[in-house]
Write a structure and sequence with these properties.
The chain is 40% helix and 21% strand. The protein is an alpha/beta fold and 367 residues long. The strands form 2 sheets. The chain has a 10-stranded mixed β-sheet, sandwiched between helices.
Length: 367
Amino acid sequence: MSNPSLLILPGDGIGPEVMAEVRKIIDWFGANRGLQFDVSEDLVGGAAYDAHGKPLSDETMAKAQEVDAVLLGAVGGPKYDDLDFSLKPERGLLRLRKEMDLYSNLRPAQCFDALADFSSLKKDVVAGLDIMIVRELTSGVYFGEPRGIFEEGNERVGINTQRYTESEIERAARSAFELAMRRNKKLCSMEKANVMESGILWREVVTRVGQEYPEVELSHMYADNGAMQLVRAPKQFDVIVTDNLFGDVLSDCAAMLTGSLGMLPSASLGAPMANGRPKAMYEPVHGSAPDITGQGKANPIACILSFAMALRYSFDQGDEADRLETAIEKVLADGVRTADLLAEEGVEPVSTSEMGDAILAALDESV
């Protein structure tokens, strides 16, 4: 059998720096755990624009459709701010999501014990937090038609349309229920059924799909209350499923409960391919951080954790994903910190590569 295939798209800013540490982790699993991957690399975002005049070439898009999983670093930067909207680096990312039909976005919010003090909430509220938000990613208000800025009477009007079909809701819901079955069998669906027809349909479809998963405890919550509850008592949740717009807001809210965007991975999954693996792209939540690019200050953990998600959701290697996450937890417990994780004066931060090396050492100890 051939090795599973990975397409790495480092992107812009700190993307290449953090992805270099992921490459070291991938090589370690090949050398020490017998997990060999066929790895290729290409351009996306501003880097692709510089080379090809567009944020994602057709050739790279074709590669992404063929591989078992895509690992992406980050896109964007001030250099590209004046480009036409269609050429901005972010359009490359959106094209990947849309054409790969990555409709289920998994955004974990996990608070490592060693970093509980970094949260803006009290330590006892967030210590041990481990929730997953499933965000529908390819429909809703970000894609609905009609949309645009139009002349209406004597003024302009901006229009965006919140639109969902039953099948779009159903596949996102099914993804969330399957995930809940692998975790603690508890799922909360969030929408605004009190004021939005799309929310009414969302609740009806999620409820219907839930009948196929009688072991999962299903609850419903208005999304605005969900935001409040995430801040009040986040550990009441395990898996949350919601639409594209609310998922964008709620996942960022949940992310900051953990104290640092530099720690958070994500997965975007689609329908199963012929080999049974889902279409998949994995990327850190953080941006390209142009202010620290090339300085060795970037925290690679979010990108490394994104690879851990790939091990779990694309390659059915949950035990090895646990091994990698445990290694990261040990490094943090030992007090190893990049600059974004420093809470006290007088502590010397490690560089991006030194953090990667520390995680490799912890992996060595795990064997």
